[in-house]
């Protein structure tokens, strides 16, 4: 906007993000490359207005955020709900899931993902643990989330959009990284309708 000589307030930008963020995230999700069939799942404690909530997160082996879900509990029912939401959104069953040693995952997996291989080990799940870091940074910048609903809405859009602009640089050669970044900015211009009129 500033590039075009238009100044807007932070509040306007916040309202635009609330209104259009999820729509952009969904369109970017459709454009991303094939997701791997090995999923890493983890949960982390988030404090909202003095109450503890658990942010459940799933990523694939490339580090793409598959889904997030904010819940009050960390029990089998909560894990079951997260699995259901994840399967509905992805549309396919993974070959392997990797989790930490929380018993709720194993109990919910027996009900929902019977045929899926389950690996439980604290060290194997570092990919998902690292995926929580941008959320923590964003939480600090926002001076905590204001409500569970606001956190769920924000994080559902934030993960895919952030991942879109942060390809895994350490896994790519410099020319491939530049090419991939150019393609991602091109995709963003198309999704956000920023392409110049012909």
From TrEMBL:
The residues covered by the DDE domain are 37-164
Query: Which segments cross the bilayer?
Result: none
Could you cite one Gene Ontology molecular function of this protein?
Answer: DNA binding
Recite the UniProt keywords alphabetically. DNA recombination, DNA-binding, Transposition
Q: Which domain of life is it from?
A: Bacteria
GO biological process annotations for this chain's record? DNA recombination; transposition
| PANTHER family to which the protein is assigned, alphabetical | BLL1675 PROTEIN
Protein name per the record: IS6 family transposase
- The organism named in the record is Chroococcidiopsis cubana SAG 39.79
């Amino acid at each position: 906007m500033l590039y075009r000589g238009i100044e807007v307030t932070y509040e306007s930008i916040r309202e635009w993000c609330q209104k259009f963020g999820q729509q952009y995230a969904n369109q970017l999700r459709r454009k991303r490359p094939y997701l791997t069939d090995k999923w890493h799942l983890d949960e982390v404690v988030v404090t909202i207005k003095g109450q503890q909530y658990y942010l459940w997160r799933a990523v694939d082996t490339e580090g793409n955020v598959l889904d997030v879900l904010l819940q009050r509990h960390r029990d089998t029912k909560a894990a079951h709900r997260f699995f259901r939401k994840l399967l509905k959104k992805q549309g396919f069953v993974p070959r392997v899931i990797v989790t930490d040693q929380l018993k709720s995952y194993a109990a919910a997996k027996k009900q929902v993902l019977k045929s899926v291989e389950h690996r439980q080990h604290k060290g194997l799940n570092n990919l998902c643990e690292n995926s929580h870091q941008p959320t923590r940074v964003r939480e600090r910048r926002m001076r905590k989330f204001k409500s569970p609903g606001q956190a769920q809405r924000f994080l559902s859009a934030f993960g895919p959009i952030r991942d879109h602009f942060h390809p895994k640089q350490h896994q790519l050669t410099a020319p491939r990284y530049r090419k991939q970044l150019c393609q991602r900015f091109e995709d963003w211009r198309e999704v956000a309708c920023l392409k110049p009129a012909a």
